[in-house]
Amino acid sequence: MFSIGWRGPVVWWNPIAGYRHAFGPDTPPRPEQHRDTLCGVSVTLTESSDADWLLPTCDSCMSEALIRSENREQRHRDARRRLHDQFGTEFL
Q1: 7 in a domain, yes or no?
Q2: Is 1 helix (H, G, I), strand (E, B) or coil?
Q3: Counted domains in the chain
Q4: Domain residues for 54?
Q5: Distance of alpha carbon 11 from alpha carbon 26, whole angstroms
Q6: Which of 37, 56, 72, 87 is surrounded by the most beta carbons within 10 Å?
Q7: What domain of life is recorded for the organism (predicted)?
């Protein structure tokens, strides 16, 4: 069976400003970075403690992360379907 492999994260999560917020997948969040969350909040990241990860998840970031995940899965299914159509059943 053919496998496209790990496609990287859909989003990165980081606790900041009282919630666990999501960030775009291009760059992992690091302390001192200035980033925009998926819900549109501009933050400067800090070092997170273990307890910070127990903060509630931002609902808006979670909704956007789920949409991005569903969109990526659909693109993956479409790519597998195109491979199947071109090369045969081992790509399904």
Answers
A1: no
A2: coil
A3: 1
A4: 12-91
A5: 8
A6: 37
A7: Bacteria
* Mean local confidence (pLDDT), 38-61: 96
Look at residue 4 and tell me if it is in a domain.
no
Q: Mean pLDDT lowest for which of 17-21, 33-37, 82-86?
A: 82-86
The answer to whether residues 21 and 32 touch, using CB atoms and an 8 Å cutoff, is: no
Q: Which amino acid is at 73?
A: E
* Least confident segment among 44-48, 51-55, 88-92: 88-92
Query: What would the DSSP string read from start to end of 24-83?
Result: -SSS---TT-EEE-TTS-EEE--PPPTGGGGSPBPHHHHHHHHHHHHHHHHHHHHHHHHH
Give yes or no for residue 1 having a pLDDT over 60. no
What is the overall mean pLDDT for the chain?
86
